[in-house]
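FIELD: query
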Amino acid sequence: MTLEEAMASDRSRNLDLLRLALASGVIVSHAWPLSLGPGTAEPLEHLTGHSLGGWAIGVFFFISGLLITASAERKTPTHFWSARARRIVPGLGAALFVTLALAFASGSTAGLHETTSWFLRALTLVSIEHRLTDAFATNPYPEVVNGPLWSLFYEVLAYGICAAFVWMGGARNAKTVWALLALAAATCLVQEKLLGRAATFAPLFASFALGMAVYVWRDRIELRPIMIVLLLGLASIVPEALALGVAGFALVMLALSAPVVALSNDVSYGMYIHGWPIAQTVVVVLPGISPVPLAVLSLLATYPIAFLSWQFVERPGLANRRAAA
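FIELD: result
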């Protein structure tokens, strides 16, 4: 079976389960610094060069590259960006209100101007401010109210590059696809010389670009166990910045090769954007909690909120989009 055939079958529903596992991995990974303080090594960090959360985000970007390229090929610019906004903004807006409620419940003294500025900067993704005055002030990781939102800016930036590449005909030319991959890989290799957001974006876009290329060549990629093994082996030897996308390729191949597991609710996004403030709240309620119990309780406490977000905020927006199409 080719990747194209698998993506067109019910096996594609396994990607929802993979995304849920990745979002859960981010919550688990963050339990260490949230319990023990900034700078605490997260799981896998010393062993692989990337934390468990870092690997999860890199794989997220590979999956996005795969799926967003498909969306850009099918949709006009207006419908493409409308679909992206409907998928991201309603859930994010709800998560920001939840974050504010938990931050003020923990004792934040942020005034109206600070709160409004924080909300608008987070909602627009342009320049997210992670801190609110006195929020979670007694926790080991004080005042940072929703750390994982940082990645959403880079995700939307990757969407824009991907869409432009597809609409300009780049995805229809093998040479331009290879050129995109080469540029993304080269940028990763000089990551240490890049400044600010460019340095952060380089490995994430390399993962995203590999997902784009895999989608373009989906009809030529066979789902074979040996391919998964070879990709995992390759991920262990390539430079760390490039390993994220290769690991994402392997995990997607594995997910699409497995028996179908159909989730009735797509809560991965909600888990990702609610996990941090809920974990901070668990630490407020149970001061001194260690990382493993914090990880478990955070997962258990975040799932119901993510479920409500999906049922009453995210899914209705997606249904309205389909009805209007």
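FIELD: remark
The mean pLDDT is 95.
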